[in-house]
Write a structure and sequence with these properties.
Layout lengths: L1 E6 L5 E2 L1 H6 L10 E7 L8 E2 L23 H15 L3 E5 L6 H9 L7 E6 L2 H13 L6 E3 L17 H17 L6 H8 L1 H14 L3 H9 L5 H7 L6 E5 H5 L1 H11 L6 E5 L5 H8 L2 E4 H10 L8 H23 L4 E4 L1 H12 L3 H21 L8 H14 L5 E7 L5 E7 L3 H10 L2 E6 L5 H8 L6 E5 L9 E6 L11 H17 L4 E5 L2 H8 L7 E4 L6 H10 L3 E6 L17 E5 L8 H13 L4 H18 L10 E6 L6 H4 L4 H6 L1 E3 L2 H14 L5
Parallel strand pairs: 5-14, 5-15, 6-8, 6-9, 7-8, 9-14, 16-21, 16-22, 17-19, 17-20, 18-19, 20-21
Antiparallel strand pairs: 1-2, 1-3, 3-4, 10-13, 11-12, 12-13
Length: 692
């Protein structure tokens, strides 16, 4: 019995010595797979066993970069995740910053990958680059492709000011013209078709080098090719794909990916990063909204494009514009949000139009397709049809009914009015994806308590492994305080309370060494408290137009700044402050979602699904997440030192304290007033005086 290495594509066989020289087939560039060969006495009767040799956890050392020392937290993560994968369980892990969960998740999967594939799902581009960096550093480099959106990778840089749908329609038209040799054409796609072998070889080269989408697009555009189309054509030869949540959870996009990849879901391992976003992302996929302006734009289309059903289209659009929207706006009154009864709207639409909403949606779609065809014929930059979009919404609004949905009319901060159908449960999307995969790792820097997130993405507790890891950073490098004399409870928001908060902020500013940040529950509360605050620091106040790069420059130039923003905003989530740019973060209040009819509907629905836990799941847990995310801006590496101060007595209550990360619960100290708060911070920095 011996081991050989087989190319998955051309099936050529290579020896161990050849494999050591290159892990890829010299002819086609495909990653070589290990095989066990049983030999009889006659060498000519060798039999190749197609099943890959099972890998053990110890084999992760074959993947590690030379000289890399695995951290203690990484070893624990790998052990927990690998055991879950071995027993076909979904692994849900809360792993704070510093554990190295990206590399740990890769080392949990890659040793057992075999002929299967790995799909890595992320929310932001910064998370993509973290994974690419880890993959490039491995001793073995599987063929890897990553995508942004098709428009982001387009070498023509088509930016007509239209929607993404417009771009897709225009791209489809140019490709079709290439196939029929009709102008206008996309020269890059034309080259892809005429020089397929060269395009595929370049795409495989990008996959070997593990280039990010922007690099791959630039590399291939220089040679006259479209990277998106070329990379899609070689996906069947690729081991790892990285893409945004849409590639994993959006059904048509996921299906297209799996088809190009040439695999079933059961042949794919799945890593989902920043998974705290998944419940809301899935609900948004099942939701839809439409403004009155969309209907008005659809009416303008009827002035340009003739059709046999034109009179009906106009009549139904006018009913929506003049009757339905007028009726629901009257019911909205002076409020910003109100629940609608879809059956009431359906009955009124039937009465006013003489037809059902189903028939109207069908006619809208038929006319919308006609509009798109006509625009395509004349080479219009905008292939999109507003009438078709109205048809989509009418269909979704009246078909998505039942206790999983809530129908709303809402006025946003710009005074726009829109109808909306919102999903209350995204598990019909997330559960099948995570369960059907060969193995799933769902992780984030904060999923506390993990069981809440398990319940929000999976229908059953069966075959799930939950794990919450402690922070790997030295406890002596941080101090966590909670003020017991202030509260953001509505009935306690008096002038006296505002002044107490201001005193705390002033005490923190005086005692702390280095830049500070203070994050509030709202812009209104921030501005109200700042009116009572006097600081001897440069104040940077978050506004809608404030740019992240400007703030980073100011923080880098001086350590006597005070940044003021809101929890859940652009400066308190998803933004790194490297090299200890912040040495203290204070939070004012608990960032609960705005209380309204939608929030109540969400709580009621979760109560029906998880008896007695509706408020925790829909209201409290998201607030704790935003709080901890804001506090986490201080400690981004093991060397960072700093203070965390939570200015709300409610975090000391057992019901809320138990939802905080375990190391918060262990280390959090109560302070009775602003003077004690300042004294603690001053004492902390005396211990770390060498830092300044």
């Amino acid at each position: 019995m011996t081991r050989i290495y087989v190319c998955r594509k051309c099936r050529k066989k290579y020896s161990l010595e050849q494999f050591k020289q290159s892990h890829f087939c010299p002819d086609c560039g495909t990653f070589l797979s290990a095989r066990i060969v049983h030999r009889s006495r006659s060498p000519s009767r060798a039999i190749t066993v197609t099943k890959p040799e099972p890998e053990t956890d110890a084999s992760r050392d074959k993947w590690l970069p030379k000289g890399y020392e695995v951290r203690k937290g990484q070893v624990k993560f790998i052990e927990e995740a690998a055991e879950a994968l071995e027993h076909n369980k979904v692994f849900v892990g809360s792993a704070p910053c510093g554990i190295g969960k990206s590399l740990a998740s890769l080392l949990s999967v890659l040793p057992r990958l075999g002929e299967n594939k790995l799909l890595i799902s992320f929310r932001t581009r910064s998370q993509l680059h973290i994974f690419l960096k880890e993959l490039k550093g491995l001793r073995q480099n599987p063929l890897t492709v990553s995508f942004f959106s098709k428009q982001d990778m387009c070498p023509l840089r088509m930016r007509s000011g239209g929607s993404y749908y417009d771009f897709l329609e225009e791209c489809r038209r140019l490709k079709k013209n290439c196939e029929s040799n009709t102008k206008p054409m996309c020269k890059y796609y034309w080259n892809n078709q005429r020089k397929k072998r060269e395009a595929e070889q370049l795409a495989l080269d990008c996959a070997k080098k593990i280039l990010d989408p922007k690099e791959a697009a630039y590399h291939m555009a220089k040679r006259g090719f479209c990277a998106y189309e070329a990379l899609k054509r070689v996906l069947s030869k690729v081991d790892i794909f990285l893409g945004t949540y849409n590639y994993t959870f959006n059904p048509p996009i996921r299906q297209a990916l799996l088809q190009s990849w040439g695999v079933d879901p059961s042949e794919v391992y799945l890593i989902v990063d920043e998974a705290h976003n998944i419940p809301n992302f899935a609900r948004e996929l099942l939701s839809d909204r439409m403004t009155q302006a969309t209907i008005e734009n659809a009416l303008k289309e009827t002035e340009k494009f003739e059709h046999q059903n034109l009179d009906q289209v106009r009549d139904y659009l006018n009913v929506l514009d003049n009757n339905v929207f007028r009726y629901i706006k009257k019911g909205l009154g002076k409020s910003n949000l109100r629940i609608l009864d879809p059956q009431d709207i359906a009955d009124r639409f039937l009465k006013w139009s003489g037809t059902s909403n189903e028939k109207a949606a069908e006619i809208f779609h038929e006319y919308g397709e006609h509009v798109k065809e006509k625009r395509q014929e004349v080479g219009s930059d905008r292939i999109f049809s507003y009438t078709h979009r109205v048809g989509d919404f009418v269909e979704n609004f009246f078909q998505r009914i039942g206790d999983k949905y809530v129908h709303l009319i809402q006025k946003d901060w710009g005074e726009r009015i829109y109808m909306e159908v919102k999903s209350l449960d995204g598990r019909e999307i997330t559960d099948p994806v995570l369960r059907q995969a060969k193995g799933s790792i769902v992780m984030s820097g904060f999923l506390s308590p993990p069981k809440v997130y398990r319940d929000l993405i999976l229908r059953s507790k069966e075959n799930v492994r939950l794990k919450e890891f402690d922070s790997p950073f030295p406890p002596e490098n941080r101090m966590i305080l909670a003020a017991s004399d202030v509260s953001s409870r509505y009935e306690q928001r008096t002038e006296q309370m505002l002044k107490k908060w201001a005193k705390h902020i002033e005490a923190i500013s005086l005692a702390n060494r280095g830049n500070i940040a203070v994050f509030f529950t709202s812009y209104h509360l921030m501005n109200t408290i700042l009116a009572h605050t006097d600081l001897d620091r440069t104040m940077i106040i978050e506004e809608r137009k404030t740019r992240q790069q400007d703030v980073m420059q100011k923080l880098s130039r001086s350590n006597s700044n005070a940044l003021f923003g809101v929890m859940g905003g652009k400066f308190s989530e998803g933004m790194d402050y490297p090299n200890n740019l912040l040495t203290c973060v204070a939070t004012v209040g608990l960032p609960y979602a705005t209380w309204n009819v939608y929030q109540k509907a969400l709580i009621d629905y979760f109560d029906s699904q998880f008896p007695g836990k509706g408020r925790d799941y829909a209201y409290l847990t998201p607030a704790i997440f935003r709080l901890v995310q804001a506090c986490g801006r201080v400690h981004r590496s093991a060397e960072d030192k700093g203070c965390i101060v939570m200015l709300d007595e409610r975090v000391l209550r057992p019901s809320i304290r138990q939802l905080l990360p375990s190391y918060y619960q262990k280390e959090m100290r109560p302070v009775k007033n602003h003077a004690e708060c300042g004294d603690n911070i001053m004492a902390f920095w005396e211990k770390h005086s060498s830092m300044f």
